What we know:
Elements: E1 2-5, H1 6-19, E2 25-33, E3 36-45, H2 62-74, E4 78-87, H3 95-99, E5 106-113, E6 116-125, E7 132-134, E8 137-140
Parallel strand pairs: 1-3, 1-8, 4-5
Antiparallel strand pairs: 2-3, 2-4, 5-6, 6-7
Amino acid sequence: MLELRQEHLEAIRVHAEADYPHECGGLLLGHLDGDTKTVVETLPMENTAAQETRHDRVLIDPRALMLAERDARKKELDVVGYYHSHPDDEAVPSQFDLDHALPVWSYIIVSVRDRRAVDWNSWEMVDDRSKFELERYEIREKQVGSGG
Ligand SMILES: [Zn+2]
């Protein structure tokens, strides 16, 4: 299960709409506890795919990914998932997504049409890597008085 706050969804939506008609991508940083992944922050990543493939591909520079993971560890956070947008397409993983997915991670996919995020789902790959299944999620309220 994925736990996240409304502000995380908002950040993902803003990123997805800003990069339309290109795909955007970013990391979900937080904690893994049993089967529950709790998002603490979202981290937008630059899409380094070639201009002509950016409408349906996100490529993250491996070095940027490594640095992001290192920074996350410094904050005692883990990478618990990945979000990306599907411009003018469903919020459903593609074969490409399946081929590049990691176990355990949550995959949030946002459908963007005419520069508006219209739908999203969280997906998790099954253990034998044959497909994704919809992942249950819970949107937590921001804690009062937490200061952020
Ligand atoms: Zn995709």
